[in-house]
Design a protein that fits this description.
The chain has 12 helices and 11 strands. It is α/β, with parallel strands linked by helices. It has one domain: Luciferase-like domain (TIM Barrel). The strands form 2 sheets. The chain has an 8-stranded parallel beta barrel with strand order 1-2-3-4-7-8-9-11, surrounded by 8 helices. Strands 5-6 form a two-stranded antiparallel sheet. About 2% of the residues have low confidence.
């Protein structure tokens, strides 16, 4: 097994909730960069559905306090709300400021049916929920052109422009664009997952448009099976399956008692997402327990072929959990 790759998810919504200060996020990122353990730091994204520090602004600040780690947003839930020309300028600028360390994972965001706050997020930006797939795919097409070419013209279902050049262009050529999705996940209240046709379309979207797939809430076995399907589809699309990357967005709670860690994680996630997750849902989304147990749980994912594990410290004691991971878990994985 190759050296496991880890990313630290920064809780940028926790600033709005009053649990940490904005400066803490910069300090955590700098520590992750110095540690040599983490290959990336990640932030989340939302406008009014789950308010937090704005993702691109935060990543630009992180570029100034780090020098090695990738700077990722996973996932950019407001991608369908952002005009791709303006966003291309913002993201290319971030890539230039970070000397080619940006890592973009876009997603659809939630549907109107998720909750009133999510419906408001679409409404206030003048976007219909049913347009999300079309806007995401068209937006990716536009970004790839603007990142690599000059005098770009485009005439699509949602955006039209002629002879546009974005400067500076990204340092990375090509600049990576991943898609984050998990259509098979259980709903937050324990309901049924998406039907087979939706799942297949979601996988096909990754295989056709993305440089990699970020997902969550999967067991190692589920991940291996689903990522295998995406790679099969990539081959059908005439792409090299080995060129498609993978990442898992997961929670971590290091503690003496696994059940206590899962309960703390549930409390943390319920508050963080203004939701009420089922215990089973939380358990499937969390590595928890004593350090040795956490090591073994991580190993199962990497043995299943996972390329990158993004970990959120699912406790309000962010500093304590980070220290425990670096001192008690990471040495057994990334020596």
């Amino acid at each position: 097994m190759a050296r496991p790759s880890f990313g630290l998810i920064l809780a940028n919504r926790a600033v709005v909730l009053g649990a940490i200060k904005a400066r803490d996020l910069l300090d955590f990122a700098a520590e992750a960069d110095r540690s040599g353990v983490f290959d990336a730091v990640w932030v989340g994204d939302s406008l009014v559905a789950k308010p937090r520090l704005e993702a691109v602004t935060l990543l630009s600040s992180l570029a100034a306090v780090t020098s090695r780690v990738k700077l990722g947003v996973g996932c950019l839930a407001t991608f369908v709300h952002r005009h791709p020309v303006l966003f291309a300028h913002q993201w290319a600028s971030l890539d230039a400021l970070s000397d080619g360390r940006s890592w973009l994972a876009v997603c659809l965001g939630g549907p109107d049916s998720a909750n009133a706050a999510q419906a408001l997020e679409h409404s206030v930006m003048g976007i219909q929920s049913k347009e999300r797939v079309g806007r995401l795919e068209e937006g990716i097409t536009i970004l790839r052109k603007l990142f690599a070419e000059k005098g770009v013209s485009h005439a699509g279902d949602f955006y039209r422009f002629e002879k546009v050049t974005i400067e500076p262009r990204p340092v990375q050529q090509p600049c990576p664009i991943w898609i984050a999705s998990n259509p098979t996940a259980l709903t937050w209240k324990g309901g049924a997952s998406a039907d087979d046709s939706i799942v297949e379309r979601s996988f096909r979207r990754v295989a056709r448009h993305a440089d990699g797939w970020m997902t969550n809430k999967l067991s190692p076995e589920e991940f291996a099976r689903q990522f295998g399907r995406i790679r099969e589809m990539a081959r059908e699309e005439g792409r090299d399956p080995a060129a498609i990357g993978s990442a898992l967005y997961h929670n971590l709670n290091i503690c003496a008692d696994r059940q206590a860690g899962l309960e703390e994680t549930k409390t943390f996630l319920d508050t963080y997402y203004s939701a009420k997750f089922s215990p089973a849902f939380v358990e499937g989304w969390t590595v928890a327990g004593p350090p040795a147990s956490c090591v073994e749980q991580f190993k199962r994912y990497f043995a299943a072929g996972l390329g990158h594990m993004s970990i959120r410290l699912s406790s309000w004691d962010q500093r304590g959990q980070l220290t425990r991971f670096l001192d008690e878990v990471a040495p057994a994985l990334v020596a």
